[in-house]
Structure formats: C-alpha cells, structure tokens
C-alpha cells in the first residue's frame, strides 16, 4: 500500500490528475443516483501516507485508498502508457499489478474491517485527558467485536471482498482449487489446502488472532483491574469517581505491606470524603500526580501517601 501511494503521491501532476478523475466520478455517480447531494457532501480527498507511530493514520490511509481505488488504478494505468521513463513505467506497472490482485484487495478490506473496530480504542488511549473506565469499557467491546468477527464474520466479509472485486474488474481465483505456495512447484508444497482455506485460516483468522493477542498482552486482567481501581482516586469533576471500597481493594491487593490496618485507612478515607468538597486546595485538580502533591504540600493525614 505504501508503495502504491508513493508512486502516485510523489508527483503534483499525478495528484492533480487523481483529483480530476474523482470529480468526474462524483458527477457520474450523482447523475445515476448513486450519490446524494448536499452541503459538504461528496468532497474530493487525497491519498494519505501512513504515519510511523499513529495507528489511526494507517486506518485512514487504508480508507482513503479504498475510496480512491478506481481513481488510483486509472492514474497508474496512465503512467504505464505514458510514463516519461522506463523506471516510472516499471514502478507504475508493479503498483498496478499489486492493486489489481485479489490478495491485495482481501488484505486491504480485512485491515479496514479490523482497524475500524480498534480505531475508537486507539483514539481513546491517545487522549491527554484519559477516562480510564471508559477506555477499559472500550477495550472490552473492542475485544468482543473482534471475537464475534472471528466466529461469525467470515462469510459476510468474504462476500464483501468478492463483491468489491467484481465491481472493480478484479479476477477472483477458484476458491476450491489447491493453494500453491512459492512458484507452484510440487517440491514447495507443504500443505494440501484450498485457496479458500488459505485466505480464511492463514490470513483472516491469523490477523484477528494477532489483534486479540496484542490486546490481551497489553491489557491483561491484572492490569485492567489495577487501572479501574486506580481510577477511584481521580480528582477530576470534584472527585466524582471517588470510591472507598475500590480504594481499599486497591491497597489490599497491590499494597498489602504499605498499609498496616485497612480499618484505619477506611476511616481516613471517610474523613477525606467528607472534607474534600470543603477544602479549596483540592478543587480543580486534574491528575493523580497533582492530588498526591497536594496531599504532601498540605500534610493531609492520608495513609495512601505513604505508598
């Protein structure tokens, strides 16, 4: 995908050609009733390069390439026919063969599907003002949707890929035929599987399983519990998240050696719960770090400071 975008995006002339083709396509689709008109509708867009760190930038790069699939293919075909040098024509030919292959389209639509599911969680985790509980709820729904896609989503997704290929003049393979590895020589064939099995197991399931593994690794059960319990100390919105039971559970599970008596801790928490709305020093705090600094500065007798 990066190579295809680079071939088109490196030239201002090609970018301009891409925009002109989009405008023609939009007009044609409006005429036949495929697009509705309205303020702000049917705007042209450009191909987007994927960022090195922002996961969401890769998602929007995929979405734009899918939206500009026909326009990009036309620009590449024009470069093959009228490129000024052999190098340009060769780059365009390789990019055109790639974008017109069934496997490329399959992977493009699969990543759009899976990254569309994870996009909301990615955005939430990148926000400076982090709502931990909301992020953990998003984690649960993201994981659940990926698991549902793996279990029940294959046939609908596969049908969407076949439909996309049919509408863009891409030849789909015989899915019941054996899948040939490498150059197709008998000596290179290790597993006798069909093409349909290859795309379903080796790509579809593998991509989803990788996403689920990453989520489980980064947010295991203990980590999620720690984050949710810690959110009870969030001082924002006048300590709206303050929860004495959760704080005591946090201390009991993760700081058992730092607090000798949980009953004393609960008593101090109850005092603080009564006082913080009346103490100006604890108003308008935004982070747990600021809260701890205020405890130390005011010498508030709060046992958790010790840990």
What does this molecule look like?
- The chain has 307 residues and is mainly alpha-helical.
- It has three domains: 1-99, no CATH class; 101-219, no CATH class; 225-306, no CATH class.
- The protein has 14 helices and no strands.
- It has helices spanning 2-9, 12-31, 55-67, 69-82, 86-99, 102-126, 132-152, 154-167, 195-218, 221-230, 236-239, 244-254, 262-275, 288-298.
- Mean pLDDT is 80; it is low at 303-307.
Give the structure's gist in a few sentences.
By secondary structure, the protein is mainly alpha-helical. The protein contains 14 helices and no strands.
Key terms for this structure?
307 residues; mainly alpha; 3 domains; 0% strand; disordered C terminus
Subunit arrangement of the protein: single chain
Tell me the count of domains. Answer: 3
- Class from secondary-structure proportions: mainly alpha
Please describe the biggest sheet, giving its number of strands, its sense, and whether it closes into a barrel: none
Order of helices and strands: HHHHHHHHHHHHHH
Parts with pLDDT < 50 across at least 5 consecutive residues = 303-307
Radius of gyration using CA atoms only: 28 Å
Q: What's the end-to-end separation, in Å?
A: 50 Å
Helix content: 55-70%
Total DSSP helices: 14
State mean pLDDT (0 to 100 scale): 80
Number of strands: 0
**Beta-strand level of the residues, as a percent range?**
under 5%
| Shape descriptor | elongated
């Amino acid at each position: 995908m990066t190579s295809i975008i680079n071939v088109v995006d490196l030239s201002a002339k090609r970018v301009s050609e891409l925009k002109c083709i989009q405008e023609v396509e939009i007009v044609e689709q409006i005429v036949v009733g495929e697009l509705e008109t309205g303020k702000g509708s049917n705007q042209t867009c450009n191909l987007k390069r994927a960022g090195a760190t922002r996961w969401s930038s890769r998602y929007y790069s995929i979405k734009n390439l899918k939206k500009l699939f026909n326009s990009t293919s036309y620009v590449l075909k024009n470069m093959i026919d009228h490129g000024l040098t052999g190098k340009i024509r060769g780059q365009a030919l390789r990019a055109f063969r790639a974008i017109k292959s069934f496997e490329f389209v399959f992977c493009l639509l699969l990543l759009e599907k899976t990254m569309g599911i994870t996009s909301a969680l990615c955005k939430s985790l990148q926000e400076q003002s982090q709502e931990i509980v909301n992020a953990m709820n998003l984690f649960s729904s993201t994981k659940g949707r990926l698991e549902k896609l793996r279990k029940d989503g294959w046939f609908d997704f596969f049908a969407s890929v076949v439909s996309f290929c049919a509408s863009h003049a891409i030849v789909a393979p015989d899915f019941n035929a054996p899948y040939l590895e490498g150059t197709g020589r008998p000596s290179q064939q290790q597993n006798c599987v069909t093409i349909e099995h290859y795309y379903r197991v080796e790509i579809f399931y593998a991509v989803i399983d990788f996403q689920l593994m990453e989520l489980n690794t980064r947010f295991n059960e203990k980590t999620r519990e720690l984050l949710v319990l810690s959110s009870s100390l969030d001082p924002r919105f006048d300590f709206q998240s303050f929860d004495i039971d959760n704080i005591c559970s946090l201390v009991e599970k993760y700081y058992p050696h730092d607090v000798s008596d949980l009953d004393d801790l609960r008593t101090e928490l109850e005092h603080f719960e009564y006082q913080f709305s009346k103490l100006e020093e604890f108003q308008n705090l935004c982070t747990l770090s600021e809260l701890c600094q205020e405890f130390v500065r005011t010498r508030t007798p709060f046992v958790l400071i010790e840990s």
